[in-house]
Amino acid sequence: MLLGSYGEDNQTLEAFTQRVENVFKLQNSMTNAVMLMEVEPSDVILEAEKAMHTACKPLNEYASREMEGLSSDFALQKQVEQTAVSCERAAKQLQSLLSLTK
To answer: CA-CA to 13 of 20 to 30 Å: which in 22, 46, 59, 93?
Structure first.
Protein backbone atom coordinates (compact mmCIF):
# COMPACT_ATOMS: atom_id res chain seq x y z
CA MET A 1 0.00 0.00 0.00
CA LEU A 2 1.05 3.58 -0.51
CA LEU A 3 2.45 5.84 2.15
CA GLY A 4 0.04 8.42 3.54
CA SER A 5 -3.62 7.88 4.25
CA TYR A 6 -5.69 4.81 3.59
CA GLY A 7 -9.32 3.97 2.88
CA GLU A 8 -12.35 6.21 2.61
CA ASP A 9 -11.67 7.70 6.03
CA ASN A 10 -8.03 8.61 5.27
CA GLN A 11 -6.64 6.61 8.17
CA THR A 12 -3.01 5.94 9.04
CA LEU A 13 -1.65 2.61 7.85
CA GLU A 14 -1.73 1.25 11.39
CA ALA A 15 -5.33 2.34 12.01
CA PHE A 16 -6.46 1.12 8.58
CA THR A 17 -4.76 -2.26 9.06
CA GLN A 18 -6.47 -2.69 12.43
CA ARG A 19 -9.82 -1.70 10.94
CA VAL A 20 -9.46 -4.17 8.09
CA GLU A 21 -8.60 -6.97 10.53
CA ASN A 22 -11.67 -6.09 12.61
CA VAL A 23 -13.88 -6.00 9.52
CA PHE A 24 -12.55 -9.40 8.43
CA LYS A 25 -13.36 -10.86 11.85
CA LEU A 26 -16.82 -9.27 11.87
CA GLN A 27 -17.80 -10.55 8.45
CA ASN A 28 -16.53 -14.03 9.35
CA SER A 29 -18.58 -14.02 12.55
CA MET A 30 -21.65 -12.94 10.58
CA THR A 31 -21.17 -15.80 8.13
CA ASN A 32 -20.89 -18.21 11.07
CA ALA A 33 -23.96 -16.72 12.72
CA VAL A 34 -26.06 -17.31 9.61
CA MET A 35 -24.75 -20.87 9.27
CA LEU A 36 -25.56 -21.63 12.92
CA MET A 37 -29.07 -20.19 12.92
CA GLU A 38 -31.56 -22.55 14.54
CA VAL A 39 -34.24 -21.58 12.05
CA GLU A 40 -34.12 -21.20 8.29
CA PRO A 41 -32.76 -17.72 7.47
CA SER A 42 -35.25 -15.37 5.87
CA ASP A 43 -34.77 -14.13 2.33
CA VAL A 44 -33.84 -10.72 3.75
CA ILE A 45 -31.00 -12.24 5.79
CA LEU A 46 -29.83 -14.36 2.87
CA GLU A 47 -29.79 -11.31 0.60
CA ALA A 48 -27.87 -9.31 3.22
CA GLU A 49 -25.36 -12.14 3.56
CA LYS A 50 -24.96 -12.29 -0.22
CA ALA A 51 -24.41 -8.51 -0.35
CA MET A 52 -21.81 -8.82 2.40
CA HIS A 53 -19.95 -11.57 0.56
CA THR A 54 -19.93 -9.45 -2.59
CA ALA A 55 -18.71 -6.36 -0.74
CA CYS A 56 -16.07 -8.34 1.15
CA LYS A 57 -14.78 -10.39 -1.79
CA PRO A 58 -11.50 -8.45 -2.21
CA LEU A 59 -10.79 -8.63 1.52
CA ASN A 60 -11.45 -12.37 1.59
CA GLU A 61 -9.27 -12.93 -1.45
CA TYR A 62 -6.48 -10.91 0.15
CA ALA A 63 -6.80 -12.80 3.45
CA SER A 64 -6.82 -16.13 1.63
CA ARG A 65 -3.62 -15.27 -0.20
CA GLU A 66 -2.00 -14.11 3.06
CA MET A 67 -2.93 -17.36 4.82
CA GLU A 68 -1.45 -19.36 1.95
CA GLY A 69 1.76 -17.34 2.10
CA LEU A 70 1.17 -15.81 -1.32
CA SER A 71 1.78 -12.20 -2.16
CA SER A 72 -0.99 -9.91 -3.33
CA ASP A 73 -0.56 -7.55 -6.21
CA PHE A 74 -1.04 -3.81 -5.93
CA ALA A 75 -4.44 -3.95 -7.66
CA LEU A 76 -5.85 -6.34 -5.04
CA GLN A 77 -4.40 -4.25 -2.20
CA LYS A 78 -6.04 -1.17 -3.71
CA GLN A 79 -9.36 -3.04 -4.03
CA VAL A 80 -9.22 -3.92 -0.33
CA GLU A 81 -8.53 -0.29 0.49
CA GLN A 82 -11.44 0.87 -1.66
CA THR A 83 -13.96 -1.71 -0.40
CA ALA A 84 -13.15 -2.06 3.32
CA VAL A 85 -15.79 0.46 4.39
CA SER A 86 -18.53 -1.04 2.19
CA CYS A 87 -17.60 -4.49 3.51
CA GLU A 88 -17.88 -3.18 7.04
CA ARG A 89 -21.27 -1.56 6.31
CA ALA A 90 -22.60 -4.75 4.77
CA ALA A 91 -21.42 -6.85 7.73
CA LYS A 92 -22.98 -4.41 10.20
CA GLN A 93 -26.23 -4.44 8.22
CA LEU A 94 -26.34 -8.24 8.46
CA GLN A 95 -25.44 -8.03 12.16
CA SER A 96 -28.36 -5.66 12.69
CA LEU A 97 -30.77 -7.97 10.87
CA LEU A 98 -29.56 -10.97 12.85
CA SER A 99 -30.05 -9.14 16.13
CA LEU A 100 -33.73 -8.71 15.23
CA THR A 101 -34.19 -12.49 14.94
CA LYS A 102 -33.19 -13.17 18.55
So the answer is: 93
Helix, strand, or coil (residue 6) = strand
Find, among 67, 12, 42, the residue nearest to 20 by Cα: 12
21, 9 Cβ separation under 8 angstroms: no
For 75, phi and psi rounded to 5 degrees?
-60, -40
pLDDT tens profile 60-98: 999 999 999 999 899 999 999 999 999 999 999 999 999
| 61: nearest Cα among 50, 43, 73, 51 | 73
- Cα(14)–Cα(3) distance, rounded to whole angstroms? 11
Distance CA 25, CA 21 (A): 6
- The secondary structure of residue 72, as a DSSP letter, is -
Report yes or no: 59 and 87 within 8 Å, Cβ to Cβ.
yes
What is the reported pTM?
Answer: 0.88
Say which amino acid occupies 99: S
